[in-house]
UniProtKB/TrEMBL annotation:
Keyword tRNA processing: no
Species, as recorded: Saccharomonospora piscinae
Name of the protein this chain belongs to: UDP-4-amino-4, 6-dideoxy-N-acetyl-beta-L-altrosamine transaminase
Residue positions of the active site: K183
PANTHER family: DTDP-4-AMINO-4,6-DIDEOXYGALACTOSE TRANSAMINASE, TRANSAMINASE
Length: 378
């Protein structure tokens, strides 16, 4: 029987294991030096923008919206073509989520649609770098500035990508990352928030750590005792432990190699599938230099499900990314209706993620290509 080929998988090497083991043998499992080191190492890939490590990409979004001061009465404008967390974490802060449509080819937030969607209540404009392709952050920056809102880049897919030669992490007021096992690098579970604003960073760090205030100069009752700490605004425990930060620092040392291999695989798919009449290969904008997280094939003529089942039957772990966020019943129950963003819905109806991860071999890729071409009789 042919081995099952997943659509995404972590790449863990001996140096990663050694980094984790060194922490386990040391004095700090959490809130220690490996956290500080990982945040500094990560900033080396964000154009020097400082970062705050957290427990997941979802936590990063929740923390970023908290840092932005999102609350009841605010609106967050975002893309529906994303994992539900981009919208859910804003809703959990009490904001109204406003979905703006995507570009029909890249799946990224359309600046023109965002311009129509923003109002004087828009606190955050949140773009998503779909599949690793950076959103058009320059145009979206203009929209955000005109609305008097902050620009957030959900870069769960795109660490290592560049937009007009600027690294992801240096383009927005707040950038969020995910380091889940299938992402471009992994800490098993983990994420981070990057921001050039010291004020936003301070608010992110506080929310990550229950909102605790330990600085005596900022406390309201500093004479309570040397043990004293206060909470001025509610936060949560989103601290990423040293043992996972050590894995992250080690993985960052391999990020360039991951990037090269993902690009090779993406290009191999492109070359082999571009002439198949039943599919569209992924689009790429001028100025975009992606670190590809997904290979988002578009399957035409309503045949996406049939191809999905055909490939799964051959042990190829394709996936679909994503149903429009407002299709989830939790948003339907709030009054959101299908048809809201036609481009996103059309993109979803065609989208199929082929296997893409750094340890995928050329023969694995060719196996997928042969199976896709065979389905279309090519």
């Amino acid at each position: 029987m042919t081995d099952f080929l997943p659509y995404g998988r972590q790449s863990v090497a001996d140096e990663d294991l050694d980094a984790v083991a060194a922490v386990l043998r040391g004095d700090w499992l959490t809130t220690g030096p490996a956290v500080t080191r990982f945040e500094a190492d990560l900033a080396g890939h964000t154009g020097g923008t400082p970062t705050v490590a957290v427990t997941s990409g979802t936590a990063a979004l929740h923390v970023a919206y908290a840092a932005a001061g999102v609350g009841a009465g605010d609106e967050v404008v975002t893309s529906p073509l994303t994992f539900v967390a981009t919208a859910a974490t804003a809703a959990l802060h009490g904001a109204t989520v406003v979905f703006a449509d995507v570009e029909p080819d890249t799946g990224n937030l359309d600046p023109a649609a965002a311009r129509t969607a923003v109002t004087d209540r828009t606190r955050v404009l949140a773009a998503v770098d779909y599949a690793g392709h950076p959103a058009e952050l320059d145009a979206l920056r203009e929209v955000a500035d005109t609305a008097g809102s902050l620009l957030l880049e959900d870069a769960a897919h795109s660490i290592g990508s560049r937009w007009h030669e600027r690294p992801v992490g240096s383009l927005a007021d707040l950038t969020t990352f995910s380091f889940f096992a299938t992402k471009n690098l992994t800490t098993a579970e983990g994420g981070a928030v990057a921001s050039p604003s010291p004020e936003l960073l301070d608010r992110a760090r506080a929310f990550r750590n229950h909102g605790l205030v330990r600085d005596r100069d900022r406390q309201r009752h500093p004479d309570e005792g040397p043990w004293h700490q206060e909470v001025h605004e509610f936060g949560l425990n989103y601290r990423l432990p040293d043992v996972l930060c050590a894995l992250g620092s080690s993985q960052l040392g391999r990020l360039a190699a991951f990037r090269r291999r993902r690009a090779e695989i993406h290009a191999r798919y492109d070359a082999a599938l571009a002439d198949v009449p039943g599919v569209l290969t992924p689009a790429r904008r001028d100025g975009a230099d992606p670190m590809w997280h997904l290979y988002a094939l578009r399957v035409l003529d309503g045949r996406r499900r049939a191809l999905f089942e055909h490939l799964r039957a051959q042990g190829i772990g394709v996936q679909v990314n994503y149903i429009p966020a407002y299709w989830h019943p939790v948003f339907a129950d709030l009054g959101y209706r299908r048809g809201l963003c036609p481009n996103a819905e059309a993109f979803y109806a065609q989208q199929l993620s082929l296997p893409l991860f750094a340890d995928l071999t050329d023969s694995d890729v060719d196996r997928v290509i042969d199976a896709v071409r065979g389905f279309f009789g090519e």
